[in-house]
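REQUEST ID: PR-0412
SUBMITTED BY: lab tech R.K.
PRIORITY: routine
TASK: structure prediction, single protein chain
INPUT:
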Amino acid sequence: MENTVSQFLSERFLVAQIALGILLGVALAIIWPSLAVHTELFGSLFVAALKAAAPLLVFVLVMDAVANHNRAGDARFSPIIWLYLAGTMSAALVALLVSRMWPPEITLLTSSTDLTPPQGLSSVISGLALKVVDNPIKALVSGNFIGVLAWAAALGFALRGVASSTLTALSDVSAAMTQLVRYIIRLAPIGIFGLVAATTAKTGAAALLQYGHLIGLLLLCMVTVALVVNPILVFALTRSNPYPLVLTALRESGVTAFFTRSSAANIPVNLNLCKRLELNPDIYSVSIPLGAAVNMAGAAITITVMTMAAVNTLGIEVSLATALLLCITASLSAGGAAGVAGGSLLLIPLACNLFGISGDVAMQVVAVGFVIGVVQDSAETALNSSTDVVFTAAVSRSFGE
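STATUS: complete
OUTPUT:
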């Protein structure tokens, strides 16, 4: 009996431990909701620890990978970027088709928000460009992963050709940082227990029933992309059964991302998973943080579905050309979701502008997004984060790794 318990508590059974934490969290919220609310501290500490470690981990890993670079890995980055683009565009198209088949409508709220959305697609793109040249210390502190990637790569190039002992020391620091993050990840069952218990006790289901149809459409789109679109893209690249990889990523990356609701916090989880999948560290140390910043299939779905809900509510006719333009706008702007306060929800007014919907009405749609955010944001993050691993592994395996 003691051996069985000790084996269950080992790192090999981390996913089972997380599942147990979810069940215990739901049970506590039902039985003793006043106590469940206070367990949020465990979840907050876990997410904060991951968010704090992620920028430094990415910085060290990318710098080490570039400094000790193997040029054989260069050819692998182009397919990953194309997969990121194809996946995001496909997600927007799926969201558009589903929204046309089962048109969503919403009851617009009278309350507004003080958040300020971007004024146009150019502002999103220029904002991303400015992230690249952000102060490196500020980028680390604020979790600006585009800036972290840029400075880490630049320093890695600068360190090429230095003494081998320096490169060895850099690799040792990278390994130590990776081990430190593994310690944090081992606390996931406790952290997720706290998040589930507190969220269930606070929100329940009553506030979400009003928007059941809208939530259902969002989840249908995200499940379709995760279990149909992504496998098709992976199969086209690898010519092998994609589902073992897809289901592994959903189980070991998607579950954690669903409850932390943070792509940044899930970067260490994805890097750890890529290591266990024995992928090339020169590739995943860059592709995973890059994916967390620009691979936003879930965000493209949210922007498209919420915009179509506003259009249907207001009775606006949508031509085929405008619908396709919406998909393109959602795909391009989704890549800027990580660089905008409020994530994908604040990019909804940008898409609504295509149909002449006023900013006041569009921000009411954003307010609805915040109401359903406990489900929408969780599912969106799970799809985005697990897809980063799926596409990275698919490219690696297509090259025989």
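NOTES: The two ends are 40 Å apart (CA to CA).
REVIEWED BY: pending
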